[in-house]
Amino acid sequence: MKKEEISAIQNLLATPKKIAIIPHRSPDGDAIGSTLALYHFLLKLNHQPVVIAPNDFPHFLAWMPGSETVLVYENSRENCTKIINDAELVFTLDFNALHRTGEMEQVLNKLSVPMIMIDHHQKPDTYATFTYSDTSFGSTCEMIYNFISFLDKKELIDKTIATCIYTGILTDSGSFRFPSTTSTTHRVVADLIDKGVQNSEVYNLLFDNNSYSSLQLLGRALQNMKLFPEYKTAYITLSQKELDTFHYEKGDTEGIVNYGLTIKGIHFAAIFIEHKDENIIKISFRSQGNFDVNQFARENFNGGGHINAAGGKSYESMKATVAKFEALISKIII
Q1: Residue 35: its H or E element
Q2: Within 10 Å of residue 3's Cβ, how many Cβ atoms?
Q3: Around Cβ 46, how many Cβ atoms within 10 Å?
Q4: Cα 228 vs. chain centroid, distance in angstroms?
């Protein structure tokens, strides 16, 4: 960020304010980690922050410090709308286009108060008063660490804030294995551990806390996997019936798409998940190397994200969506 922007934000934060902190719809570890880290930080500055998520977050994030304070817009539209309208400052974290908040977009679009965007996705919109956008970062949480440093308040990062930041870095880096994990990332993580983060405990809470039904769902997903070695591609489908059979809970399909990339010779993986309540097929894309799934998702499936990790959606049937995908991969070079 530019010095004048940092100075302006410091002035904004110099006196106590009502502040709304907004993650994207279907928030993941980076979205919840960054919003809660900022929430705890702003509390230390005597502000009145409130995190308002568009919809529920996965159950495996419910242990995070402060998660019980997160309001869910879909569960309390009137109350959440009032809090947003009463806010004197709004932070939007881990997304860069207001449509990523779903129904909340119409509320946020009407605001006249300053907005601060902190995000690492490509092609940010211009709605924010102050924008801290950098696609070289593997997570918004690492950017929150920098943001606090920019404000000369790094000494306020305690175990609670550090744990929230660490969670987002861990999840969005694929446990530190994605290419966006830099030496600086590791230095940041080392500092967070020095602040008191129990790194092995955080990992266990995130990844070793599965239900039996979620493991059965994983088994079905792997049974459904289809390989196209000639196109270096694998994809998985999960129908609504299969989700219901294995008692799906939000978060149960997190990370399943990555299994395709563990197969020798596969560089592009996708998962298609049917959600009949929304009349939509939700899609996740992952790649290795230079194949840009962000561009692929934007051009073909109403989505976007990063070069090696992106999401999309389809309003067609599962059969039609998969047929479209198969036709597309036969024409591209991976």
Answers
A1: helix 29-44
A2: 8
A3: 10
A4: 29
Specify the amino acid at residue 101: T
Residue 255 zone, left/alpha/beta (φ > 0; ψ -120 to 50; rest)? left
- Tokens of residue 299, six digits: 């051009």
Q: What is the mean pLDDT of residues 108-136?
A: 96
Cα separation, 327 vs 49, in Å, equals 48
Model confidence, pTM: 0.90
* Matching residue, tokens 């609504």: 240
The answer to whether the CB of 292 falls within 8 A of the CB of 256 is: no
Report yes or no: 36 and 180 within 8 Å, Cβ to Cβ: no
How many angstroms separate the CA atoms of 198 and 210, rounded?
20
CB under 8 Å to 330, separation ≥6 — which residues?
A: 231
Position of tokens 């880290």?
A: 37
Q: Burial-class residue 156 by CB neighbours within 10 Å (0-12, 13-18, 19+).
A: middle
Residue 166 token pair? 């660490």
Rounded to an integer, the average pLDDT of 72-101 is 97
Task: Please say whether the beta carbons of 305 and 325 come within 8 A.
Answer: no
Cα torsion for 266, 285, 203, 217, to the nearest 10°?
-90
pLDDT of 81 higher than 90: yes
Contacts 24+ apart (CB under 8 A), 203-208: 203/170, 203/175, 205/60, 205/63, 206/29, 206/60, 206/61, 206/167, 206/170, 206/171, 207/60
Bridge partners (DSSP) of residue 314 are 281
Average pLDDT for residues 270-285, to the nearest whole number? 95
Strand-pair partners of 286: 269, 309
Q: In angstroms, rounded to a whole number, what is the distance separating the alpha carbons of residues 302 and 314?
A: 7
SS3 302: coil
What is the structure's pLDDT at 287? Answer: 95
Report how far residue 287's alpha carbon sits from residue 309's, in angstroms, rounded to the nearest whole number: 7
User: How many Å apart are CA 239 and CA 91, to the nearest integer?
Assistant: 36
Ordered by where they begin, the domains of the chain are 3-206 (3.90.1640.10), 212-329 (3.10.310.30)
